[in-house]
Amino acid sequence: MHKAEQIAQSRHMNNLTLNRHTEILEILEIPQLMDTCVRNSYYEEALELVAYVRRLEKKHAAIPVIQGIVAEVTQSTQLMLTQLIQQLRTNIQLPACLRVIGYLRCMDVFTEAELRVTFLQARDTWLRSILAAVPEDDPYVHVTKTIEACRVHLFDIITQYRAIFADEEPVVPPPGQEALNESAIFHGWVLQKVSQFLLVLERDLQRGVGGRLDSLLGQCMYFGLSFSRVGADFRGQLVPIFQRAALLTFQKATQEAVSGFQEEMNSYTLISAPALLGSTIPVAVSSAQPGTLQPPMVLLDFPPLACFLNNILAAFNDLRLCCPVALAPDVTATLEEALRQVTKVILAFHRAEVMAFSHREQELFVQFCLAFLEDLLPYLNRCLQLLFPAAQVAQILGVPPTQLHKYGSLCCIDESAVQELLASVLPEKETVSPLPEEKALAPESPAVLLDLQLPALEQEAEPSITAAEAVDDRPVSGEES
What we know:
Elements: H1 2-19, H2 21-28, H3 30-39, H4 43-59, H5 64-88, H6 94-107, H7 112-132, H8 139-164, H9 182-207, H10 213-227, H11 235-266, H12 281-288, H13 303-321, H14 328-353, H15 359-387, H16 390-397, H17 415-422, H18 436-441, H19 446-458, H20 467-473
Helix pairs in contact: 3-4, 3-5, 4-5, 5-6, 6-8, 7-8, 7-9, 8-9, 8-10, 9-11, 10-11, 11-13, 11-14, 13-15, 14-15, 15-17
């Protein structure tokens, strides 16, 4: 009877299992069904299965079969979580982003703050993959494509974040913890992205962009202006970067000009070149039109000076495309240093060749130095004044233009310093003490002086003298002759 009782009980359990076969089979097939839903991206059905298994676990946590089912479903849930985060690392649009974040919230794996960080990290990974694919061979192409990619994709990410997460609603912290400023998460990430872009921009500008700073400045300003709509206007951060780039480009160009001048001087010989232009024509041009940008033609008689000026003018033309007024003192100082180096080259040339100079070569060397001092330097000063108008500089400083000289040589080369360096190789100028009548009349040339003085001499009782005698009696300097 005892054995029959066991058999009857086993038979009853078998009959009960047979009657509940369908329901038991459904429970046992949950892990397989969960895996199928996850691999085919049926995330809503997978979430329903997860919720059902959680209820089973609460009711029958002690049953080993249920424990195995829960463990297998948990593995499939982890796979679904990985797939959802991986979708955020692709070129996903806003509707798909909303669905993915909805699934992640239903999974109840992350807190609200962790969900924001996870979203930004995943989208940041995708953005960095886009930027890493930009070719870096040409700095201009690299920075241009980087600007375009950041402007388009970064703005899309910001739009997606603001559509999904409402920063106006405070994140409810867990009990016993302080409230979290969720807006700091987003703004910190945006600040990091802008800082990384500025670093890339500065690095490419230092590599050289071929004199196209103005084009890049326009693109970057448009980029910063578009970000002003999301409260991340960074145009103010662009100014010092482009200032440093413009100054570095100008410094390189002036150094190349000095190197070219030195090479020219190494092979230069003082020869009597045919004066096609003459020494009076360029003086007349410069005196008649002091505000023009026409270079002094007298420099064509001296090829090293002409080549040096051409290189400096090329540097000025590149600087003119992107010429911040704040660079006025730095550009002036750079140009003064280049002129000091040029002066040292001239002095070294004189020391090396002075013992072999003939009288004519000595005269040509003096003319060379005078052209450098009296034609090249004033012309460079006029170029600086056109690049950096005194009225504009005074307006930025907040002082009257007449008081600008108190702030030193902001946009004017100190010609006296260069003249002092060359004073040792130039002859001293002879000065003529003017007569009282000459001081009153303020003559412009010796010829005018003689014309005015001759009638007074004829009225005297003494024998009249000729104009030639008057010239011979008066000490006349070399320049007046």
